[in-house]
Amino acid sequence: MSVPSPGTQGLRWTTAGESHGPALVAVLEGLPAGLRVDLDAVRAGLARRWQGAGRGPRAKFERDELELLAGLKKGVTLGTPLALRLGNADTRIDELPNLKAPRPGHADLPGAMRLRGRDLRAVLERASARETAARTALGEVARQLLAEFGIEVASRVLEVGGRDAADEAACEAAIAAARDAGDSLGGVFEVTATGCPPGLGGYAQAVDRLDARLMAALASIPAVKGVEIGLGFTAARRPGTQVHDPIVPDPEGWAGLGRASNRSGGVEGGLTTGQTVVLRAAIKPIPTLRHGVPSVELSTMVPSRATYERSDVCVVHPAAVVGEALVALELASALVARLGGVTLAEMRRRHGDLGREDDPGAWKEDVADLG
């Protein structure tokens, strides 16, 4: 859930529901009144989450049936909490058997240790990546708010199992081979955002820093084990002269200024620079393997194989779609916090006064003169 720092009013969201429960529920607070929400576009975004090679059996029957519960009148936001329901096609939470041996790579054992109980399903049902469907739905709404201000979020897969994703045939063959072997593959995806004005985010408190919030958002996707922004880890291996983005005059830039490069990934000091925001995430191979990973039966403490649950082989493509949604949520939250306003019309007026046509030479020299 997004947690604004004191004095900051951005978006706030939360989700509820289990993987095999009746439904997922998602609530988004802080949207301005007057935003027309296209629920069919939200459904299309949810459908993208099921696409891509490597998806498991659930992709064949899960439809993510979307239902509006609150927050709209005639398809337009009221400025009140927006609530959505995503029905689950498989609702057997009370009938599915418990797992005897926890699965390495999942929340099974750490969750059991936390609860001090052997009901692993009580842990895995909520820890499941199924929850990301709810946040994806909210991210698709956030995408529509961003579009009102010319901000677009996109993603692409860069690697699958160590192979360049541009070679689709090789990647699909690798996924098929992993499926036949009862194995799984990970990869790398990239999320970009264009059209962000400079100054979104903050530096007064650590929680305001947009780079930290964006990276945390991607890291919250199950199986993601590494996130970088801009050059990321590459910057650590270069001298400073090859890392930072020179500031140059640019008649097309905000306040007549621009950058000669974008190694920072569009964020400096916790704030957007006006350049494209660029993030990458590394996702590990799915830890549920058909042959099982060595584990221990908790009731007997006898070495065993981890229980196999229906699973995917590779989720890099759907993870990229989820990543788009989460980046959209964080950027929309930062935009709402920056502009304020209880209606979309107010936000538009304030967006028009952010200083795109400013002359920096006319800016006040002392903060005491800004009042």
General description of the model:
By secondary structure, the protein is α+β, with helices and mostly antiparallel strands. It has one domain: Chorismate synthase, AroC fold (4-Layer Sandwich), CATH 3.60.150. The chain has helices at residues 39-48, 108-115, 121-127, 132-147, 168-180, 210-219, 316-339, 344-351, and strands at 12-16, 23-29, 65-70, 72-73, 76-77, 82-87, 152-160, 163-164, 187-194, 224-229, 247-249, 257-259, 267-268, 271-272, 277-283, 294-297, 302-305. A five-stranded antiparallel β-sheet has the order 8-7-9-15-10. Strands 1-2-6-3 form a four-stranded antiparallel β-sheet, covered by helices on one side. Strands 4-5 form a two-stranded antiparallel ribbon. A hairpin with a 6-residue loop joins strand 1 and strand 2 (23-29). The longest helix has 24 residues, at 316-339. Mean pLDDT is 94; it is low at 1-7.
Question: Which keywords apply here?
Answer:
4-stranded antiparallel β-sheet, 8 helices, Chorismate synthase, AroC fold, 371 residues
Say how many strands there are.
Answer: 17
The CATH topology is: Chorismate synthase, AroC fold
- CATH architecture assignment name: 4-Layer Sandwich
Helix content: 25-40%
Look at the structure and name the CATH superfamily. Chorismate synthase AroC
CATH class: Alpha Beta
Low-confidence segments, given as residue ranges, are 1-7
The end-to-end span amounts to 34 Å
Provide the structure class: alpha+beta
Strand content: 15-25%
Q: Give the overall shape.
A: globular
Question: For the CA atoms, what is the radius of gyration?
Answer: 22 Å
Average pLDDT, rounded to a whole number, is 94
Number of domains: 1
Helix-strand pattern: EEHEEEEHHHEEHEHEEEEEEEEHH
Strand order of the largest sheet: 8-7-9-15-10
Largest sheet: 5 strands, antiparallel
